[in-house]
Amino acid sequence: MLGLNRFFKYFDGLYMSRFKIYSLIAGVVSFLQNNPCISQSLSAERNYAINAPGVAMVQTVFSATVYVNKVEINEKRFRQLVDSVKRLDTTGNMLSASQKLDIVVKALYRYPFRYFSATTEYLRQQHRIVSEGTGFFITGDGYFITNCHVIDRDSAFIRQKFIQSTFQEVTDANIRSLQRSWAMTLSDEQRNLLYNSYSLIYSQLSSMILFDLKKDIYIIYRADNEINKPFRIKKQAILVIKGRAMPGKDVALLKLEDVKDLPTLQMSGDSVVRIGERILVYGYPEPATSNVFLAAESNSDPTLTSGIVSAIKQSVGGWPVVQMDAIISHGSSGSPVCDEDGHVIGLATFGSLEQNTGTLASGYNFAIPISVIQEYLDSARVQPKQSLSSQLYNEGLAFFYESFYNKALRKFEEVQKLNSNYPRLNYYEALCHDKIDAGEDKESFMQKNFFRIMALILFTGGIYIFYRWQKKKRETFHA
């Protein structure tokens, strides 16, 4: 009788331990169904899916009324030049019209100050120059981070750009006028020679005056319509606070009005950047955005480049900068630099120049760290905060990449109510429907097979308990 009581106590303990194990398994399965684990290291694809919607292009437009001295050709000397060319071919059979024109153009190129001169007459033109870069939203109501040098240029730079823009337009007009008066079409070589001649004349003889210089800052970001077709929204931004262009702290904080639930990026809570860690940069580099072989609508998507943190250096101002080998170019200024968790750790700002050529040296680029950015956010009393739409969208992506497509779809539908233009939202909704229709939803599979799985677990557990009971019985009997 004592042995039987011992068995029942043993059996009860064994049964309860198995019951607890089964309960724990069921609890873990339920938790994973409702809270798919988010890896500490996201894939580049998932990182892009999370962060690309919150990255935008920054465009600063400088406009002014420009007055420039008109340059005209010296008719007397030009006629003498033409007559001298005619005397080279008295029969009219030695040189073609194109060859004669070539001699004239080359003479104008060699002696521009003999044949051209500035007048006292001024041309009046409306001109504008555009500076472009990248940035990202840190709150759903429109706070936006970029580089200071993207939105704030010094007067010398602005004047130089206006000179280049104005002279190019005036020169093109002069060359077109010459072609009409000569009734000839210039070759590319002849056009370039004349262009260089005019550029030299304008730069040395002509003066330029700027009036009513204005600056407007715009943020251009992607949105999607109900049929998953992207379009761009362009809104004027307000400058909240800025530092100074390099070698200063090259940070600017902008704000859009009358917006809500925009896609946002999360700032890293760790100010320590580790050498060797993998990073990803999202931006609008000029070689990609200005490529003539690419459709204009493709410019709405940021370009992703990746690399590692190469070193932590110190700027001449005494504050740290992050060296990285991720590729950046003109237009990448202000791009968010993200870690493998998808959090912003810096702001891509400047590169290095090759000493021999003066071109950008690939793979030696620098970012302003999050600690410096935080100084300006603190001064402006702005607290970065993930928008509700981004929070739900990212939760939906977590479910999506864990193959819980029904749960992902429900999250995406919540985002749709907050921001129906959320980039790539319709794309992922359509993918969820396709996966569900194909029977690939993990939740549906587990629900369909839950009782079969539980029955198998209980059956296996029963056999195990029976085996242990038989073994214990034999041990008791032999004892």
Number of strands: 13
Task: Report the structural category.
Answer: alpha+beta
Largest sheet: 7 strands, antiparallel
Q: What is the average of the pLDDT values?
A: 83
Level of helix content?
40-55%
Beta-strand share of residues: 25-35%
Please name the defining characteristics of this protein.
14 helices, disordered N terminus, seven-stranded antiparallel sheet, Serine Threonine Protein Phosphatase 5, Tetratricopeptide repeat, alpha+beta, six-stranded antiparallel barrel, 479 residues, single chain, 13 strands
Q: Can you walk me through this structure?
A:
With 479 residues, the protein is α+β, with helices and mostly antiparallel strands. Among the domains are: 2-33 and 443-478; 60-135 and 150-214, no CATH class; 388-440, Serine Threonine Protein Phosphatase 5, Tetratricopeptide repeat. The protein has 14 helices and 13 strands. The protein has helices at residues 2-34, 44-51, 75-88, 97-110, 112-115, 148-151, 155-182, 188-205, 286-289, 370-380, 388-401, 405-418, 425-437, 442-478; strands spanning 55-73, 116-137, 143-146, 208-224, 230-236, 238-242, 252-255, 278-283, 303-314, 320-324, 336-338, 344-353, 360-369. Strands 5-4-1-2-3-7-6 form a seven-stranded antiparallel sheet. A six-stranded antiparallel β-barrel has the order 8-9-10-13-12-11. Helix 3 (75-88) crosses helix 4, helix 7 (155-182) crosses helix 8 and helix 11 runs antiparallel to helix 12.
